[in-house]
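The records we work with from here on pair a chain with its fold. Each token is a code from a learned vocabulary of local backbone shapes. A record is reproduced here so that you can trace the correspondence yourselves:

_____
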Amino acid sequence: METGVNDNIDECPDTPQGLPVDEKGCITVQNINLNYNTLKMFPGKTIQMIAEVSPSNVLDDSISWSVEDNTIATVDENGLVTTITEGETNIVVSSNDGGSTKLIPILVGDWTDMISFNQLLIDVIIFGSNYTGIFGSRIINNSTQETIDLKGLKVYNGTGVFLYLDLDETSSPDLFPNLAPGQNQGLTVYFSVFVDVPIFEWTFSHNGEDVTVVHKYGFEGNVVFGKGERSSRNAVLNKTDLSGDISQSN
């Protein structure tokens, strides 16, 4: 791509000096702005991608759409994406003047791909393999277009046998809102006695189907804070070896 223009020979004599131009001396597309920069979707879904090029005074503002692996998803000439089967690939949008290309990662999967968790630890004290303090779980809806209706939360001990807490939207409606794409909800539990690291079991409804996802995390290896040492708020997270697992049952 050339820069600068010779106004005596080009076809766009008003182009300012120093801007990237095509072989005709006309400004080319510098950037493509999209309504989504990444996609996480279920199979059999559609979504409309919208692209705008800049600057707005380019001679050719047309674009082309394609998919690197069209067995996972397809896209038509207008940017309508249709998902087919689980997997990961990229949507490719390119300006036809050759000035800019963007890749939009797309993951097609199930709820184990759409939901993630954050651990919440506040003033945790460790004695051997037992813990006391405030433990919590933040559930995050990472899907692009699905809204979930939180229904309840159960908290078990580390073995999954003893039930410490059982809340639902009937008894505590304010704790279980609908989560639109990108939204999250975090709940914490205070344990005044020493327990194993708890397991959080979230239930939500989507399109009339109840889904359960399990957030389990624990301290791996040796005691991380020092035996009996009180941690500072949240700063403990960079001292721990935490692991989060998601399982699904429909």
The longest strand covers residues 115-127. The radius of gyration is 26 Å. Residues 1-5, 219-250 have pLDDT under 50 and may be disordered. The CA atoms of residues 43 and 199 lie 30 Å apart.
